Amino acid sequence: MRISVIGCGYLGAVHAACMAHLGHEVVGVDVNAGKIESLSAGLAPFFEPDMPALLAEGLDSSRLTFTTDMAITATCNVHFIAVGTPQKKGENGADLRFVEAALEDLLRYLKPGDIVVGKSTVPVGTAERLSAMIRTNMPDATLIWNPEFLREGFAVADTLNPDRLVYGTRTGSETAVEILDGIYGAALERGTPRILTDFATAELVKVAANAFLATKISFINAMAEVCEASGADVSQLADAIGYDPRIGRKFLNAGLGFGGGCLPKDIRAFMARAGELGADQALTFLREVDSINMRRRARTIDLAREVCGGTLLGKRIAVLGLAFKPNSDDVRDSPALSVAAQLQLQGASVVASDPKAVANSAKRFPELEFTETVIEAVKRADAVMVLTEWQEYIDLSPSELRGLVASPNIVDGRNCLDPTKWRAEGWIYRALGRP
Length: 435
Ligand code: UGA
Description:
β13, α18 (419-424) and β14 form a beta-alpha-beta unit. The protein is globular, with a radius of gyration of 23 Å. The protein has helices at 10-21, 33-40, 51-61, 97-107, 126-137, 155-160, 174-183, 185-189, 199-230, 234-242, 263-276, 284-307, 335-345, 358-364, 374-378, 391-394, 398-402, 419-424, and strands at 2-6, 25-29, 64-67, 78-81, 115-118, 142-145, 165-168, 194-197, 316-320, 349-353, 369-370, 383-386, 409-412, 428-431. 47% of the residues are buried. The chain is α/β, with parallel strands linked by helices. Uridine-5'-diphosphate-glucuronic acid is lined by residues 121, 148-152, 210, 213, 217, 251-253, 255, 257-260, 262-263, 266, 324-325.
């Protein structure tokens, strides 16, 4: 099988490299020449552990190539669509322009027997429409909707060892399903569950999963608000309820809340789509999930103001962590970066650091001061804020930092530090949902 992967962003680039690793011949296609140049040189345009090795392996073996020329898809039989579906500007809905443009371009080169595999996250009903477009142009080509569940930071492992595979199909797609089974043969042989369903269910699986994860995080953050009001400790609460296997401890870390390129925009697009379908009431709770999430950012800024004696004006604040989560350089809708920018707007002078996300943050908020090292960030600070739980911040020495700051105030935005350790060294420790 010769495979094309259209769209070489996070999802597409990782998918292409992983498919080549599995032994397939793969060409990645993207309209962005810079991205293609970088990938062709073996450089991933984002930080993802394992990607450099996988890219090098694919390029060296010649099984993996990249191009901006869609005509190359004429030499492939299976085409994965992995372009982005960002939030529309000023609206909650998903912007499908890139998916539509990619398919329209691909249609020019489709041949009888070709399979188009949709991986982008789309509003329910999209696959049916795209399938009709394909049938009009090339009746012998088949669409399968195959959502992707990879997490940034674990993208390679999640692609090679998925929890489950979901295929959304129309009737009469048996041959295409067999071919896709062949592509995912290694995972299927290991017993990976495969759910064969219709288009609408496959599309919904993806957004329902992300909506559930967002809800779980906002649930514990709502509990954090109640803990703040009552003097309880949300971390212990999460541990205690998490022992119930029906609840589970994963995704119950209270703190600054969720961000990134997926969860926030996916729950909004889901609400917008439900509204179009006349099922808006079913998802009104997601509006609350979104609000709880946003309130955590405001609360973190309040904590900074409190430890600074009631005003942020003229205070020097060290922000440790800018990425939306550790092991990532992604700052799309990052709660940490959003708090850093707000602190600055409210009169503080922010010095921000992150092991991987400084360059991306500087592009979005050039007015912030950035530094690569923790030491430089915390020097003479009136407050230190840990906003992304990188291991190197968890491992910081309270006694070493104590000698560098102007005032020993620490705000733990991710409940990742040990309060006893910090307080023992004379720090004022404040956190979200913890006394
Ligand atoms: C998420 C989903 O986890 C993936 O399954 C999905 O494939 C992906 O979106 C997508 O739609 O493409 P990702 O955006 O990489 O993956 O990030 P997560 O690991 O889910 O974290 C999302 C946010 O939630 C981060 O900001 C993280 O800090 C926050 N979070 C996570 C919490 O605040 N508390 C937790 O307990 C867990």
